[in-house]
Write a structure and sequence with these properties.
alpha/beta
Amino acid sequence: MKLALAQIDLRLGDLEGARARIADQARLAAAQGTDLLCTPAPLFAGMQPTALVGYPNYEHALLRCLRDLARETAHAGAALLVPAVVPLEGFPLMEAFLLREGRCIPLRAMAMARSGRMDASAWEPPVFDVAGTRVAAVFDAAPDARRIPRGCDVAVLFQTSGFCASDGATHGAAGVADGHFADEAVRAGSWLAYMAPVGAFDETVFAGASFVMDDAGSVVAAAPAFEEDLLVCEVRRGTASHALDARDLPRYERDEWLWEALRLYVRDTVEARGRSCAALPLEGDLPSSLLAALAVDALGSRNVVGVLCARSDVFTPRQEELERRRVERVRELASNLNMRLVERDQGDASRRMDRDVPSRDGAGLRAGIDALCVADVAHGLDACILSPLTKTDAALAPGAALVSGAALADAAPFGDIYLTALEFLARHRNALAPALPAGLVSLAAVEERLSSILAAAVASRPADAAWTGRMAALLAGLEPAQVDGALEAHVDRDRPFEEAPLSARSPEAAAVLLMLVRRGEARRRSLPPAPMVSARPFAERAWPASLAWSDLGRDGEEPERLADLVEEESHRIEELGAEHGQRVRGEILGLLGSLLGLTPEQQAELASEEGQRRMRESAERFESQLRQALSSGDDAGEEPEEPFAGQGHPTALPGRFPFFSQN
């Protein structure tokens, strides 16, 4: 059987566009003798469809589109396997539609109907036949690989998780070198076809790099990363196949892949807004300069405009020199990128607000006016607004970002990337074509921007001057790697205070950082959307906005856990049971003592631990003697030995046995 993987990029939810594009791919695949064509999972509703799935007319439009596609490709010569999210019993279900001979067959729903379980939690991989080959549709590699029935020839794995820089399982063929996918193919005993999407679907980005792997875990065909492609491969289970050389597979380089993922996000996001160009602020710092390079790579230099606003708070010769250097850096950058630059002079911000005295928050006021200038330019060009906001900004100073006009932006491409990572992205971009001034591609540029973020974070809590000064002193001595390392451990990996890298060196500074993250929760919800490329973006990490608790550590105490509490309570109940049993035994011994005429001292001796031990030993000794006597009494013609006498019935002799044996 020949299998084809259509690695295509389409606008999310463009049903008619998807129908036409898939039909074209089916004709191209059929021309190469393909028997089955597979399409990516997020084309129709993305991987986070939310309430769209339950909307009746969307379900109607989707199914109508698939029926039309089935009829249009009925004579193409290739069957189609098209995944899409649909509602089932009020819950979203990732369905696999098989389109062939003009029919649209919902494989998973049909399998559920046959089993009598119309339940979205039934994740059994549907299996069907194409050209004499058994094919299984899989959506989650690890669990579904164990459920693939033996005898399947090929499993088509649809990627549903977006690109994550730290997760090799989202890197397609480049993840094979890190040990992903091969075990699943070998365990299932079948070939594996990995259908990877490419492009941005809302905040989720996919890198492509689809591949086909044989049942020995070797890649026999692979598509490029970050490009559209139609990958066709012959599936021959049980026969030797020619594996690709490792050098021919896509190779994962973090900075390169991250840059390409962000480029795809900017391109597809601007297109999804119905625009063709973007406007952004140019501050002469690393984030805004790198954002300009990213926008040019994604949209082309003619479709990007930067806005430079002159500073009005220049009073000293040193401030004049710093402002001159900043303007020179911005102009040099615009010239290197061959992009349009608009320069504006805001004048005195206080006078614009009709104030007789300077504003207490003059810097925030000027930043807000700068944002309005960018918005005005974008409005005149019908352009999207891009924000240079980073994840470090969002974590520590989201309020300052909003004051600076972040809420006006359509997207923040660096919103899920920490500030320190921008230096390495800038080095990667300049290695392709030098564009950023050398002074910006350095640790000093990162430190300069971090100092501004920390100053804004401290200024956002001006209630107590002494506490504000203490916060500033604690944070001033931190290096960028320390700040971002503590944030990454807390936000991305959910590590407690004690496991934060900074807590051992400066626990007070670590506590301040975590407190700032907690206090910014409500404001973060108003920030512009950002691509999700980390292990845990803020879009998925939501704490209560009015939360008053901050993680300040355990002060050396052992961690309290529910399991420990359960064990403690269970142990208490066991002790109560033992105490209750002891009390019952005492009452029984008291009753026996009264009946047998034992003195209180004798009863106490019997109830003691030593008395209990002697009683157990006596009972064991008596049981042994009794068994011996019974055994000897059964022997014919033999007289019973003492201490038993009579006709096989034991008779106790006084003084021969302990008290309970005699009674």
